[in-house]
Each structure stands twice: as C-alpha cells, then as structure tokens.
Amino acid sequence: MPPIARRNLLKAAAVTGAAIPFSWLLAKNAPQAAADSPAAKSADEPVDITWLEDGGLGAAAGSTFGVPWPKGAHPGDRTFALTTADGKEVPVQTWATAHWPDGSLKWTAHAAGEGLTGDAHKLTTGTPAAPAKKVTVAESGGRITVDTGVIRAVIGKDGEKLVHSVTRGSTEIARDGRLVLLRQGDLDDGDHGSAAWERFDGEVSGAKVEQRGPVRAVVRIDGKHRKGRRAWLPFSVRLYFYAGADSFRMVHTITYDGDQTAGHESGDFIRGLGVRFSVPMRDQAYDRHIRIAGEGKGFLTEAVKGITGLRRDPGANVRAAQVKGEKLPDPATWDQRVTSRLHLIPTWGDYTLSQLSADGFTLRKRTKPGHGWIAAGGGGRASGFGYVGGVSGGLSFGLRDFWEKFPAQLDIRGAAGDAAEVTLWLWSPEAHPMDLRFYHDGMGQDTFPEQLEGLEITYEDYEPAFGTPYGIARTSELTFWANAATPDADTLVRQAAAVRTPPQLAAGPADIARAKVFGGLFAPVDRSTPAKARIEDRLDFLFDYHKGQVEQRRWYGFWDYGDIMHTYDADRHQWRYDVGGYAWDNSELSPDLWLWLAYLRSGRSDIFRFAESMTRHTAEVDAYHLGEWAGLGTRHGVQHFADSAKQQRISTALYRRYYYFLTADERIGDIMHALVDSDETFLVLDPLRKVREDPDYEPDPHALSIGFGTDWSGLAGAWLTEWERRGPKAKKAEARLRSTMETIAAQPNGFVQGSGLYDLDTGTYAIEQEPKVSVSHLSAVFGLVEVCAEVIELIDLPKFKEAWLDYCRYFNATKAEQKARYGTDFGSLILVQGHSRLDAYAAVQLEDDKLAARAWQKFTEHHEGDGYPDATTSWKTVELEGPQVLEPGVEAAWVSTNATAQYGLAAIQNLALVGDKLPD
C-alpha cells in the first residue's frame, strides 16, 4: 500500500474575492496613536520578570519569554529595556508576536542571556542595552556562520552536514553535525531474528536565518533522511544562539511518512533516530575525559586512559588532577613505574548509556570495536547528558526529557582515536523497533453500521485505513556546549540541569491578568473567602492527582509523554488504556485549556511544565502534518492516531497559542500558521459521515457543512491567531473570521442553529431560511467559550455578540425557557457544570445577577453523571497495593479527565467573572 496521497484540495479564492472588502477591513483596523490612549499613560509601570523555577540562568545560553500588554498601552514600535533588581542593564532583544486591532502591542517576546543575575528582573519601556558580545550572522555561498562572540558555528544549506563546524577561538570543538536514521523493513515477532537494518543520513534541502541578533539568532534547517534514491522522514531543525554564549540549542522535529501497514512486505520501522557530532581529540589519552550523567547530580567521571586505581601510584597530585579534568603534569615527573608502562594501560574509547524504560538505564564501555563490553553501572532515570573531550576543549551534549521519552541512548565512540563520535539517540537502536502498526485487525467492522456498533461497546470510532501514523510528528530538544577545557564538576551539574529543565523567565499572574488577554477569563488565585479557598483547594487537588497519575501509571515514552488517560476502570483499579476511546485523552474536552489557564493565574512552574509537555505532545502526535488529513487531529483512543474521527477540535490552535505567546516557540508557531487553510479539510473528510441525516450530502466547496461549535471554534482559533500575529495570511484570516461571525449571527437562531453551509471562496455561511434548534453538549467545550470571549472584544459585531449571549443564557435554562425562546427545548443535555461558565460570562455581559447566581448553582449542584458535584464528591484518594495493582499507589475512582477539564475551566472562569457573587 503506497503512502497516503498528499492533500490535493481546491484552494480558497484570492483574498480580493472574499465577502468583505479588505480596503474596509484595513481602514477599520488601521494603527492608531496607541501611546495617546488612557491605558498607555499608566503602562510605564515595570513588569516583574522572574524565573519559573529557582536557580536562574545556570549554564543555559539564555531565555526567551513573552509578555502581554493591555490594549492601547504601547504602539507597535515601542522599545523595551530589561534590568536586574538592583538596576543593572541586561541586553535584551524584543519583537512583537501579536497586535491588538488598533495596532498596539498585544504580546511581545524578549530574548536575554548575558547579564541575567539573581531571581528578579524588571521590563520597562526604554532603550535596550547592547550585549558586550553581539551574536552575528553571515551568509556566504552554501554556508551560514553564526558567531556568539565566544563560539562560531558554520551551518550548511545543503548536503548531509547540518553543522559543518563549531569552534571556540581557534580551536575546533565539534564538526560534522548530522542526522542519522536506522530503518528496519520488518519485525522479528518470533524467537529468532533475521531483520536487516539500513542507514539513512539527513540531507539538507535548505536553511534559513529567522533571527539575526543582536542577542538571539535562529537558523532553521529542513530536509529528509536519504539513502540512494529514497528520501523519507522529513525533518525540521532549528538552532538557537545567544550573545556571549558558549552553547547552542537544537529543536528537532520529525514527521512520520513511512508505511507500517499490516502485511506490507517492507515496512518502515525506525530502529534508531539520532543526532551525531564528531569531536576532535587532540590531547594525550590520559588527558581525555568522559563524563556521563546518571540520576540527579550523579556522574560517571573517567578518563580514556585512567591512571587511578593502578597497581603502581603515579602520585596523588596526578590522580587528583585527572579526576578533576585538569591537565596532568609531565609524565616525566610521575612515578616512573607508571610512566614506563603507560602503553600497557587500556584506552576506553566507547561508552553507551541506554534508557530503555522510564525506570532504568544501563551504562557500559569497551576499549574499541570487536572487543567485549564491560558494565560500568546503571540506575533509574538518567539526565541524558554527557561530555567528551580533553584539557584543550570538548563538547557537552544533552537531550531533554531523556527518560520521559524513552527509549533513548547516548553513545560515545572512538574517543581513543583522532575524533570521537557522539550520538544522541532520540530512539535507541537497542530498543524494539518503533512499532506504529494499528493494534487490531478491524474485527469485521467494514461498514458504518458495524463501526457504530463498535462505538457502542468500546467507544472506539473505527474505520479501515484510518488508524495511520502517516503525518504525525514529534519534537525533541537538545543542547550543546563548546567548552574550552573539560568542565569542572559544578559546571557539569549546571549544564545537565539546564538540559533537564531549560531556565524560563516569565511575567507573573498579576501582570498577565492586567493585560486582559485570552478573553479576560482568568484572574490570579484568590483565597480571600472560605468558599473561594475551597474551590482553590479542589483545583490544586485535581492537578496534583493527574500529575501523580502520570508517574504512578508511567505515562511516558517517545510518542506518549505529555498525554493523560481519559477514563478510569474502577474494577481493575486501572485507567482504561486498552479500551477503545477511553484510553489516551488527545485533548478531549480541553484539558490543555484548563492547564494553561491554571498556570496563568497561579504562576506555578509544575503546572507550566505539565502544560508544556502536553502542548508539545498534542500539537505534534495527536494531529496530522502531512497527507490528506493535514490540519486535522485524532479523537481519543488506544493509540494517539487510531481513531477514525479526524477533526478540527483536536488540531485547534486554541490549545497551542498559550505556549507560543509565553515562549515565542517557533515550532508551535509553524503548526498554527499551517492551520489557517484547514477549512479546506472539510472537502476531504466529512466529520459527520457516519451519522449525517442527509444521505445525499457530498462535500461541495461552495456548500460545506461546518458546525458552529467544535468545527468553527477550531477554524476561528487559527484565523484569530494568524491575524493577531500578522502572519503571511493575516488578511485572509481576518476576513474569514469576520465573515463567518457575521453569517453565524445572521442565522435565524444564531449559534443554536447548529451548523451551516460554508463557501470556501467567500468564507461565508449561507443564511438558512428556516430556524432550527441543534444544540450539542460538546459544541462549546473545545474552545468555543474561549474564542468567543476573545473575538467579541476584538471585533465590534453586536449581532454576533447577541447570538453568543443567547446561546450562553439558554444552554442551562429550563426546558420551558428554551421552548419559549426557540419554539422547542434543547433536549437532554449534559456537561451542565462545565457550561456554568457560559452563565457567568452572560451574567457579566448583561449585568444580570440572576445569571451569576445560576452559574454557581449549576457549578455546585448534582447532575446525573456530570462533573464533580459539591455535596457528593469525596475529594480524597484511597491507597492501593498488590495484588490489586501492579505497583502501589493511590486512586480516586471518581475522577475522569473530561470532568476535570470542564470543572477546572468552569471554576477558573466563574471565579474570574462572578467570583464576587459566590455564596459563602
């Protein structure tokens, strides 16, 4: 079976053919004199910038962070300065990542490195300080040279070498930075092995400078892995450099485009996936050093030719110097019983640390190929960090989330020769090959009726050939240091810590909330009353429980890390990891939104890191980036790509934009740019194909059935983000946003109409002639609440606001009230607790205290099978031990991820909107 064909879609009409003239749009949103607005007069207050975790910059090169600003506070050309708490200037580079419609700054990104000291900094308006050593970028022929003032990297625009060389001063520290892929054509499922491997090398198709300094430079490199005529597994690599730094960071993304179809004669099973550098070895073997991090601050500390522990003692000062990594005295000064026999001491040139599970690593070494490996230790969770080099310089290297995204591996080869070869394996070649085959044979579910029956029993929406990994992606983060000499122990500990947890600067909850970004749907944590404190305690409980379950249940692995499970099986005391749609959550009911709002209001680093790993996962693994389903995500299931429901509600930019604006992460930015045209996916795949009541419906570019809930919210999120980022398709995105808002508002029943027929050429919905009531409990729980709150503040369309407020007012209304307004009620709806935030939003907009009271009533009362009612939820865990479970731990069998996400969002938004109306 050949790979799924690339998407071949009818492209939307030229921008000038859109329903709303762009001359009008541009005139309406032309930049205004933002500095003259009232907000600007009070916006000169400094923003406090602190480290997310204790410890400061450490050994990292720098930190990039985002700051939001109130509408009208700063014009687009405003400059900013960064200072330490005691007033010392810190060089900073600033760029806009989003604008308000009036042209003022909404989000800015700031890069800093040199001069960051202490815990606290202040960001103010002003002229930024220039770095003492600016990072510079030069392009010549097929090379890009980046110079930080300390190290210089030469980057290739073609060929197999991503990084030709890394030098420090006149010393070459590393060279021939390249990607390596090992492919296996089939799997050895029996008790004998005969599978052959083949090696592919990364081939660069192009490189582009995205930032040129003076504080931060970014180079993007794209290509595929090639052997002979075949090129596959596309990669996108970004290299980050900071002024004055001796290190650089790599963000490495692969997109899977192989074939592992069951029964296929030659499948594409990844046996190993790595990043490789060569490190020149200039020093004597006894002055060459190996450092490999274990768990915590643990290190293997050795020399290629060790002179400790010998039968004869070279001298205490000699031994101490080698352990410290310092240059040894002239051997002529040693005990000559050692010096005369140096040639008889083995050189250990090869080292391997493999982390094949989340709980264990092994470390071994050998003298050279063809000779046996010697066990050198082991432990639980390695840092994924090492060093090879000598007293004249060497390379430190590290892979983030090393054990969390097992199987991973670090290799050092040939350290006794002229050059050592370092490979950071993102997928260890010692592990079982990467197996992405679908997990069952379909069980006869060949027709839609049979598939719907399967949905009734395992909650899995199966369809033949839909459970494919073709087009999913994964991003890894690596860091490299070009050291002038072997680092001392303290420096190595700091470098390893910077790999595990890259230092992150951040603005605090008060400053973020003051800007009223993200719809103003959150406010800083408030425990000022017992009732508020009780809700805060429960929010903490839910986060801590899910975080603990990741560890207890070992939700780790290359493709899995960052996701959580959907539903619990109380009988087995186990999450339903093997039961259809109850397994991996894949963003169902918006846990991503809950986590990011929880971070914004609290500033908690553990919530940030949890949300960060989820964003990395759900943006990459749960969505397609190639093929006919590019732009769509996959519903929850046993495998992240298994379910046949491929929809906007999972791929939505609404779940990613928080991380992007807080960190300016370019990879997430790429993903959101790619979603602007995802309205075209409705030509390829009808999300309601199995249950659509109209048997004659066929996707038509001028009449695409697109719902106003989960469908439109995903599209609107992408359009909103592209517009405010001023991306390459910002004009089209704004036009689509406005035209769909106008034509949703013009429907007889607005949002309650449920869906409409969308025209790809004009970006408008056809206006229905007859009113219809079509309301789903799912419509508003995949970001619709959040995106409506934002666009209503940005775009003045009273009819749209009215339509949305009607939906908010009547979802939780009585059936009699619904019938009086719409002629019929909405039927039996669930997720009432989560929808209480719609009542709260409408209460504020309409200044209606009765709606505020209803919000808290619906939030706290019992609804059958829905949420966490105030009076009947235990808010406790119980202890588990064998033989009930595999490993001892705790359970809260009443917790479900759906309920957690919606409880969390409702609690956070209700407190922000109508917290003053919360009954004691």
Entry summary:
This protein has 920 residues and is of the alpha+beta class.
- Poorly predicted segments: 1-41
Q: Describe the largest sheet.
A: 20 strands, antiparallel
Q: Mean pLDDT, as a whole number?
A: 94
CATH top-level class of the largest domain:
Mainly Alpha
The number of distinct structural domains comes to: 3
Please name the CATH topology of the largest domain: Glycosyltransferase
The Cα radius of gyration reads 29 Å
What share of the residues lie within helices? 25-40%
CATH architecture of the largest domain: Alpha/alpha barrel
Structural class: alpha+beta
> Terminal Cα separation, in Å?
64 Å
Total number of helices: 22
Number of strands: 37
> What overall form do the CA principal axes indicate?
globular
The proportion of residues in beta strands is: 25-35%
